[in-house]
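Box S2. Input/output pair 1.
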Amino acid sequence: MKIPQLAKKPEKKSCHNTIWEDDYSWIHQKNILEVLKDGTKLIPEVRKYLEEENAYTEFHLKDTKEHQKKLFDEIKGRIKLDDESLPFKDKKFIYWTKTTKKGNYSIKLRKKIGTEIEEEIWNGDQEKKKLETEYFGVGDLEVSWDDELLGYSLDLKGSEYYSIFIRNIKTGKLITEEIKDTSGSILFSLDDKYIFYSKLDDNHRPRKIFRHKLGTPIQEDILIFEEKTEAFTVSIGLSSDEKYYFIVSSDHNTSEQYYFSVNEQSPKPKLIQKREKGIIYSVNSWDGSFYMHTNKNAEDFKIDKTSDINFKNWESYVPAKDETLIGGLTFLNNWIIRSEVTNALGKIFVKNLENNIEEELIFSDEEVYDGGISLIQKDKNTDLIHISYSTPKTQSRVYKYNLKTKEKKLVKEQIIPSGHNSQDYIVERLECVSHDGRKVPLTITRHKKTKINGNANLLLYGYGSYGNSMSPSFSSTRLSLINRDIIWVTAHIRGGLERGMKWWKEGKLLNKKNTFKDYLAVARFLIEKKYTSKGKIIGMGGSAGGLLMGAVVNESPELFCGMVMAVPFVDSLTTNLDHSLPLTIGEFDEFGNAKDNKDHFDYIYSYAPYNNIKKMDYPNILITTSLSDNRVLFDEPAKFTAKLRDYKTDNNLLLLKTEMNAGHGGKSGRDGAIEEIAFDYGFILKVSKKI
């Protein structure tokens, strides 16, 4: 089949006395945000190219179609399709959600406490059918405090422009007009007369908080807070004791918080502490005291406490620990629960407020696991909570746990209908020394029959940005590869928070290359230890993880037989130079500001995947993107693919697949998500010669 060609229209670019040529910059339309909302505004020539790439991809993966179907059935066969969540006891009702065998979206139900009559208040599949839309993304689903109203927000393109709707649960009628172009979050006031929401600006940034009086025209909505700094975005929430509304304004590196009483008729948010660059803080209120979670004078955070309404006289409550990330607090009348993360493993601690004794809550006797807690009911006068855990080989289990007696009872276990024996798998936590001596944790999951002799293919997953940590949790989908003799390894590289804030700082800005070097060090370590061999690794990462894939494949393509790059941030220099794009300004503290800082420009230019494509052999590569993605615009992977075709000197596969009706998260619905995984896995099995 003829290889798709994107027309070259060379454009000279310059910045900080550096001049370079971009053959494909023309596909980035000036009205790009309008294109994300309405795909019909896409340049016809670009649409034709994307469709040709889709046809080319389909042609070269047609021999995987049968295997994709088998993978789809396998993955779906491990999901209990007709499942229910554990119930949550509110004041008047018990709420829970369920899924069905035929449905793709969840159903929300409730029953009045003391009765057994179930009431369905939301059915995602029925809502989608009514709207006759291909993409159906639910942002928020909130019930009013009096249990009479349902608030929900919908994104029907994948562009993350959410419309908010409020309807009467009994009558099903909308009680207020559609509120368009919001971030999607909904907060009912305690008297249920109002909702609070954040509006997106022209650059898709939520920088305004509005209060809407239910039943009135949206033109009368009151602006209660506006953030003037473009890099900052805002959100609003309720304190744990339901006495205050808190507005948080932040970028990735700095935060500032405001508050006002729930009883204020004309809200006038008051500042808690003025922002300081690099300081992140969050204040909560409980039982007459305020608790501040902050990294001021505590790189990996600490928690301070005060009873002063003027937010002075803070005293230490949970002190800082080096390279141990201190998490936030969950409050009950007699208990305070908190979390820590050390060396990519989480811990939970429980403090008894009657005797002030704090103890660690032990989840599992396995070395590597992911655990958490959740509340059972609205009423905080209880000793009962849910604790959950999973491991890379053991499916999720939830226990009802009595904090006082320490008794636990299994109340829900993830069912794998097609069967699963955790004893068939081996999980290891190893450390590998990176280029500068830092030890990188890695989590390895393999079938017990897979031999460690260098012959196995290995999927190496990485992300390493924004302080996002990769948790060692269970994934039933990965078993389709692991059962086929492919070892799955997650590299906990710098840029995440697995080893505290220092781990993040050492993987961003002018340290960003540590992320890439860590990943390559892990790859070579795994080859050295005979988990795999050179040319048998499949790299995998999405979004900022796609940036990682692009950087490492330009650096060391010989290590890989294949690579899956999902919605990859590969034209990172161009995006960083364009301050009108939704995320750019807010990410200056993550990647730098190339336009205004020569050091940042030179550094980003030196690793940006699109700018560093070379004349050499590349492995097989599958690139996926979505037309309505406003986080990583579709033109980045499209340009990367077109340029890579010009430069690569091999005959390996280079495939670009664009979802024409989806966003950053891919297709909507359960089946859509499984189809995408089966598609990626079909490519992986093909390039690793498993089919």
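Box S3. Input/output pair 2.
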Amino acid sequence: MGRGLAAVALLAALIIPTAAHAQGGKPSGRCDFTDPAVCLYPWPNDLFTKRDNGTPTGRRLNIKRASMPRNKDGVAIDPSDMNRADGFSPGSALLTKVPGLDTPEAFAASKLPPLTDLSRGLAANSPIVVINARTGKRHPIWAELDSTATSAASRILIVRPAVNFKEGERYIVALRNLKTAAGKAIEPSVGFRRYRDATKTRKRAIERRRAHFESLFHKLRKAGVRRDGLYLAWDFTVASRQSLAGRVLSIRDRAFAALGDTKLSDLKVQGKSPSFTIDSSIDLSTADDDRIARQVEGTLTVPCFLNKGCVPGGKFTFDRRGRPEQHGTTTAKFTCRIPRSALDPAAPPKARPSLYGHGLLGSRTEVNAGNVRSMANEHNFLFCATEWAGFSNEDLGQIVATIGDFSSFNTIADRMQQGFLNQLLLGRALIHPQGLSSNPAFQKNGQSVIDTSRLYFDGNSQGAIMGGALTSVAPDFQRAVLGVAGMNYSTLLQRSVDFDTYSQLIYPAYPKEIDRQLLFGSIQLLWDRGEADGYAQHMTSDPLPNTPKHQVLLHVAFGDHQVSDTTAEVEARTIGAFGWRPILDSGRSPWPRFQLIPNPPGPSFRGSAIVMWDTGPARMEGAEEVGTNAPPAASLPNRVGDDPHDNVRAMPAARVQKATFLINGLVVDVCGGRPCYAGTWTGP
């Protein structure tokens, strides 16, 4: 994700601690008594929705604030903006508390499907089954216990999708034949037994759900799952395309329509360029920079769809049609770097314009990083960057405030979507004939140095996480490289060393351990609007409306300490990427990687792909520790050895593969038929 650790001192000033919220096993209008451990468990759950014929799914979330986790001051998270959604996150973690299934021994005794063997979750006798309610087809998942819980009482069962759930679909979850560490069968709650065993009552709150449970049991039986061994079953609906991407598509389409371009799927520039100003243009000597010839700073005028002037803390307001309202305009600063290759006096080729996406809580100045400058000059790319509004250094104060009470997390997600618009319009200015290329800052001898025929995208870390979402809505580029990417944040957070900083604040603010996964799962409903998770189904071959198809190259660092390579594999499966082989040397990983990811069609091919780069095992080279060991399968970060997070983009061979993909759409072998190595590692 990029460290952003300069924020530690400021973040550490905020320590806010959580009062317990209502639990219990009695029927109520806001809790599910089939799992009495936590009001909103099992999660996600259609019990917490209501009918709404005005949405694509026919449902809308109906989560009561009194049911939500509370901070230490007793303030429950406000779910108002979550309740605008017509379903749950496509990357939802399925959460429930199973008393007695709270140790690795109980996990093993129950034969739960682990991350290390995804086929077990699809097996006929799997103790955890997730089926599509419409098709009856099983969905690939894995299970894990909450590795961060400090007591068995607060350790919950987490079931994660190995590929995102399909938007707009309903899923049924079934747990069965669960056992304690001693091998004793775990009995279901009294509440669930009333439905499983068809025990009639005189309680209206119980009986009004009976027909629904009978329908679940019927569908499960058709899928080969009998009711008599069930520990728990429930269902949930995934949010629709409109619910997930509708806001950003609305602001994108209106912004481009104002420029005179309404047909964004044809990859043709129409209408006028976004307005911009050039603040500085400085030519650099080779002594200043041997790779970059000119640095340009400027500002771009962008429609503002947040209140409060589009500054951090602003949020969407909505018109009668439910669309974000425009609040004037805002300016987005940008930084561009023109490589020496584009100003070659002998035969200057025009540079390929590309947006660059910076890392966690960073800024546009990351375009000055050595690997970006090398990529620019080696392969003639002109990179421009603007801040990822919502998760840049400008947003740190708002993020700090949000940690104390996640009721305001919608301000982060909304600003992330405004950030997408800023990026898209910068891209349009880059390739518009009357855009940046018309300004002397981007010319030599009166001629533009920009090849305006096509735009590209290259992002790393957070720039790749948000870059996946940007790619899904981008009208001006077809291909993107996402370096050390992953999704979703609710899976990623506790698998990242970067989260150390924030957990020191979030955990005291919300100290009830059994609630924490619910906290992450609920804010993921909002986070989906600003990261790849909410858009991945449409990132490549199934484009969003009025959007071209895209191809994506995922570059992954094996054992990454910051962005778990597990989350990159989920993304690869979801977007339909091929998995580059050979992946790793034999024995390098304790479990098979790229499970359920297809082999490429040949040694050189077109299409989306994931390539894993390995820096080798942790070892000493002189006085320096290099390499890293395999990451844990549990929801914990890799902490062994040297973090390989920055190493892939620093490899010339990786940059060759990136450039070839961006320019020609080809994924080529730059590793000589062997696994791809990074850093100083050259193989065992």
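Caption for Box S3: Residues 3-24 have pLDDT under 50 and may be disordered. The chain is about 25% helix and 20% strand.
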